[in-house]
Write a structure and sequence with these properties.
heterodimer; A: mainly alpha; 2 domains; 75% helix; elongated; disordered C terminus; B: mainly alpha; two-stranded antiparallel ribbon; two-stranded antiparallel sheet
């Protein structure tokens, strides 16, 4: 049997047009509200168009028409399988005070892994400088950290950085963007089964350990705390959270103790990855501002005690936020998708 | 197995095929997007320069932040608002979609664009290009992690088949009994082949086009022996077109 294409199109056109209109309406809505009748109608139109496609594919494969119907049905399929994921609106407040801390806690073991690795890197860096002071030049990539700590402290205290006074905004912006880029890299390297993230975190730890040991050995612990604590207590956890996201991505790819397919695992962690990296970016904005406007000012302009106390208050606030925020609300939304139903090949 | 199609089998048994965009097309789209990013950043820099009169430090800080936001956010924002398309993808008529045919989620868009940082390594999209070339679905690492693919976007309007047949006088139509015999004897596969040849004829190289329609005409002739006078002056292509017209439009109003 060969289909009379003209008659077929004439008969089915209203169905396709109605489905197209309905899809446009649904696609343009951030939140989908369809009545039961509308859902039933959508399903009917989808099934009828599907039957039409099967008929035309079998008996009259006019390529443009087949492509049109496939495109229409793909859109309809996406909407019909995905409606539950858009039943609520996104709220910045809810995201910040509930979703972000809950996601952090949900995947805490990856944060712990990132922290452990950084600490190990720190011990290695500190140990390397302890045994061989010349190793500092090979480990630390920042020229201003290579000079003698005592000399640097003397310079900073006696001759405040005049350039910084007129370029605080620029400096702050450069810090924010650079640190955010490093965070994105820590997440993105998770695609190497987490190996790239592990190396990045360890290397960060090595640098940090080498610098810390160098300043402590030189008897500049107070300066070090006054310099690093105000921004470091936010910046370092932010990088660790980005590392947490990278390790989560790596685990989703490896799939230890998981019976799900790699696609299902990646799908289930996608929301968490975005939440963690967004949270890290937000923390880095704060850290950038603090570093440019407070950390770089030393005694006698800003007393070290003030900077240290400020840093400790920040740390306590951040810990309280990450540990306790969102505990009273419901769990992080695990938006189910009917991914198991479809089979792509 | 490597294929240039994304095939989605729905629970209803419908098989939906979408043509995947290859690495070269995607690279060209990226080149257009890079130009777009340069233009937007340049414009923003000029606008922010005006604020330098008031506070040069703030103007430079704002420029640094804006450049970063544009670089990272360009693709994320456009793909979200244009349902999987950026400027480059629009120009080249390609689109990002979910690899399993589901709705593209914001998280997927963010992940595939953040992982671009790795795909860019060590330079000129080397990692992304190699992965995309080797991947069965032309996915770069970002696509793989976000579970997305890039397909050719299909024009969303019903094709007008009237244009295929209109303006042609079908000299075979007066032999209704032979037309009926043809419709009875031709298989759906043969009919589809003839129809596709007519639809795609403009895309064929001249010699291939002549050869294809000669072979088709030779194949179709025995199915319905139309009198010689009705075929006089008809080229092989016109003959096949008239046959397709008879098959797919049995009744002309």
């Amino acid at each position: 049997m060969i289909v009379d294409l003209k008659k077929f199109i004439g008969r089915e056109r209203p169905t396709w047009e109605e489905l197209d209109e309905m899809l446009k309406r649904v696609e343009n809505q951030a939140v989908t509200y369809l009545s039961l009748d509308e859902i039933q109608r959508l399903h009917y139109l989808y099934e009828r168009t599907g039957a039409g496609l099967m008929k035309i594919s079998t008996f009259a494969a006019e390529p443009n028409l087949v492509r049109y119907l496939e495109s229409l049905l793909t859109r309809a399929y996406a909407e019909m399988q995905d409606v539950p994921s858009r039943t609520d609106t996104w709220s910045p407040r809810r995201w910040l005070f509930r979703t972000f801390p809950q996601t952090f806690r949900k995947h805490f073991r990856f944060f712990l892994a990132a922290l452990t690795l950084t600490v190990l890197g720190g011990l290695f860096g500190g140990g390397a400088v302890a045994f061989d002071p010349d190793a500092k030049a090979a480990i630390v990539p920042f020229p201003h950290l290579l000079e003698n700590p005592s000399e640097r402290v003397r310079e900073e205290e006696n001759k405040p950085n005049q350039m910084l006074a007129t370029a605080r905004g620029r400096f702050s912006a450069a810090l924010m963007t650079n640190n955010t880029q490093v965070s994105i890299l820590a997440l993105a390297l998770g695609v190497t089964w987490g190996i790239g993230t592990l190396i990045l975190l360890f290397y960060n730890g090595v640098i940090l350990g080498a610098v810390l040991f160098d300043y402590v050995r030189a008897g500049q612990s107070v300066f070090l705390m006054g310099w690093l604590l105000p921004h470091g207590v936010v910046e370092i956890p932010a990088i660790l959270i980005a590392g947490q996201a990278g390790l989560l991505l790596g685990q989703a790819l490896i799939g230890w103790n998981s019976k799900e397919s790699v696609n299902q695992r990646l799908r289930s962690v996608a929301g968490s990855l975005v939440t963690l990296i967004s949270g890290a970016a937000l923390l880095l904005v704060w850290a950038g501002l603090v570093e440019a406007f407070l950390s770089q000012y030393h005694e006698p302009i800003v007393p070290y005690q003030f900077k240290i106390v400020f840093g400790l208050i920040e740390l306590a606030t951040l810990l309280t936020f990450l540990v306790f925020a969102g505990r009273d609300g419901g769990p992080v939304g695990t938006r189910s998708r009917a991914s198991g139903r479809a089979r792509s090949c | 197995m490597r294929t240039n199609k994304l095939i989605i089998r729905t629970p209803e048994g419908i098989c939906l095929a979408q043509q995947l965009a290859g690495p070269v097309t995607r690279f060209l789209a990226v080149a257009i997007d890079l130009a777009g990013i340069c233009v937007i950043s340049g414009l923003l820099a000029q606008i922010l320069l005006l604020t330098a009169i008031v506070n040069p430090d703030l103007a430079l800080a704002a420029r640094t932040v804006c450049y970063f936001i544009v670089t990272v956010g360009y693709s994320i924002i456009l793909e979200w608002f244009w349902r999987g398309q950026t400027l480059g993808k629009r120009v080249l008529k390609i689109r990002v979609v979910d690899a399993e045919g589901l709705r593209l989620r914001p998280a997927q868009i963010v992940i595939r664009n953040l992982l671009r940082l790795v795909d860019l390594l060590p330079a000129f999209y080397a990692v992304g290009g190699i992965c995309s070339t080797l991947s069965p679905k032309f996915q770069r690492l970002g696509d793989f992690a976000a579970n997305t693919v890039v397909i050719y976007a299909v024009p969303e309007k019903i094709p007008d088949l009237e244009l295929l047949f209109s303006g042609t006088l079908n000299s075979l139509r007066s032999y209704s009994h032979l037309a009926a015999q043809l419709r009875k004897s031709i298989s759906p596969g043969e009919a589809r082949l003839a129809l596709e040849a007519v639809v795609r004829r403009d895309g064929l190289e001249a010699n291939s086009r002549l050869e294809l329609f000669r072979q088709l005409a030779d194949h179709l002739h025995p199915m319905a022996p139309f009198p010689e006078e009705s075929l006089a002056g008809l080229t092989d292509e016109q003959y096949v077109r008239n046959i397709v017209d008879l098959i797919y439009r049995p009744i002309v109003p």
